[in-house]
Amino acid sequence: MTATANPCNISADLEKFIVTEAPPTVYYVPNFITEAEEECLLQQVYRAPKPKWTQLSGRRLQNWGGLPNPKGMLAEKLPDWLLKYTEKISSLGAFAGKTANHVLVNEYRPGEGIMPHEDGPLYHPTVTTISLGSHTLLDFYKPICQTQSEIPQTEESRYMLSLLVQQRSLLILQDDMYKLYLHGIQGVCEDILSDHVVNLSSTGAQLGDTLTRSTRVSLTIRNVPKVIRASLLLGKK
Ligand SMILES: O=C(O)CCC(=O)C(=O)O
């Protein structure tokens, strides 16, 4: 995939990867990276020193680029092995001309997942994810409707659709799929592909297939617009 001449606009190359069966806007690019790149990225992730990992319930993570917070992120330089991909994805126009400056590495073992959540206002409203090592199903949910307080709104009743996210793929979520709907991953060991998985036609997988999960590492690549320069903190101009 070539980089666009005008990185403010999403690349024309990406348009053919829009998942039209989902609300706006999902781009799903299978085999965005090669097997050799996947191997190399996994080696770099597992080369990080132990204290770089934070253990959460159901996954562990590495934070690269700084800690996003409402006052502004004290930006740290990304390592070259991540810069290669933050720059490539930014040059496709994924962040409206801005460059990604933050990467969250999540590791999920089989049976692990992440609760439905929104990524929120600390980020430019686009999330891009490269998956390594395993597929997963990313599930989307409608938000809790405040005006329907009498009807119980369970996770099940709010569930909307899923995306099959394969290893080596790139997923881009923008617009309502970023701002309105919640996303999460069920903590299961295998996935049965139902007709709720709306991007099957671009994956080569078949309706009814059972896919066994192995350890998945995701690189969640985003732009944090509000950053604090270290020089400001040190009182320099
Ligand atoms: O691993 C993924 O693909 C999802 C990660 C995620 O939702 C998050 O880090 O907020």
TrEMBL record:
Keywords: Dioxygenase, Iron, Metal-binding, Nucleus, Oxidoreductase
Predominant localisation class: nucleus
Taxonomic source organism: Carassius auratus (Goldfish)
Cofactor: Fe(2+)
Subcellular localization, as worded in the UniProt entry: Nucleus
This protein's encoding gene: alkbh6
Sequence ranges assigned to domain Fe2OG dioxygenase in this UniProt record: 99-225
Listed PANTHER family: ALPHA-KETOGLUTARATE-DEPENDENT DIOXYGENASE ALKB HOMOLOG 6
Protein name: Alpha-ketoglutarate-dependent dioxygenase alkB homolog 6
GO molecular function, a single term: dioxygenase activity
Keyword Methyltransferase: no
Similarity comment: Belongs to the alkB family.
InterPro entries named in the record: AlkB-like, AlkB-like_sf, ALKBH6, Oxoglu/Fe-dep_dioxygenase_dom
Pfam families hit by this protein: 2OG-FeII_Oxy_2
Any GO CC annotation of this UniProt entry: nucleus
